[in-house]
Please model this.
Amino acid sequence: MSVVKKHFSAWAAMFALAFLFVACGSDGPAGGLVIEGQIANAPNLSVHLDRTTLSNTSQILALEKTETDASGHFRFELKEHPGKGIYRLRIGAKQIVLILNGNEDKVRIDGDLTTLQRYDYKVSGSEDTEKYIETVKGLMARTVTSDQIRQIVETWPNPLLGMYLAVQALGDNPQFMGIYKKAAERLEQEMPGSDYATIFAQYIGSLEQRALQRQAAEKIRIGAPAPDIALPSPDGTIYRLSDLRGKVVLLDFWASWCGPCRRENPHVVQVYKKYKDRGFTVFSVSLDGVDSRTAARFKSKEQLDEFIQRSKERWVKAIKDDGLEWPYHVSDLKKWDSSAAALYGVRSIPKSFLIDREGKIVAIGLRGAAAIERELLKHL
Model:
């Protein structure tokens, strides 16, 4: 209960604006949809019906626009139902979230412009939206628990309602990963291949990576065993950090797009050439590629795959251009969602970890040839 209280206010504000997705086709009946209502204290205001994308920087995709009359009445008559999805009704500077299952034929909204932000309005004709308002009011009153959110996620017919409420109520908290994964599972089962299912899965992946980074920050310390990494090289060969046991290894996180990394590379090359015959090597992890936040902006899998391929080519070119002669170059091409970066708690690059012959971390964050060489000579 306390975690639900803590997270609702911050996440409600954020996701009311940002965490609405593009509907993927029409899941509704052949008939249209009427959305009408009366909002007191809202004479002659513009009223927009939108579906929006996940990213704050993405353009709002407007469905319809109308105006209230002198008494606050408004009416949309859509010839075709826009389909199962999450929508936003903007009235002046205020907004109302509508969650539709695709089977509605008429939705009515009655309220007062001055109290819309408190969800103090009535909706009829959309059972999903009615349940959403009821639950949000409970969250604001601190009477809704995480178990109640779980029940909605698991049992409510429209999985979009459970997903949206889970994000608003529970926030960025790995404690509730089971609820999120159940929401994602239902979305994929009932709306397979939709933008909702795809983007929410990416959102969960991002949460998991951040959780791993927090865990890593606690366990990655000098004297601790270096967690193993197993990732592919540009040609597909899987290299394992643990296979280098017996050597002193500089584990180096970098990327072709990172200016400071590229300026650091000559120092690493200098030390490698000088000590490679004495049991020293480098294991380079590239954060090239695309993370989930960037991936959500692509309109198709083909465009995403093309971008990843170009990123891989820039990585390979940087290896050649910078003379990084060692064979151990790996990446999962997920940029900041890199599994290795999460494992080591890497949140900025360049970032290095010196590992001794027994596989223990002996130094962190070495920069410059002199600093690397000074620490390296202690362990050769």
In short: Residues 220-376 form a domain with the Glutaredoxin fold (CATH 3.40.30.10). The CA atoms of residues 177 and 204 lie 8 Å apart.
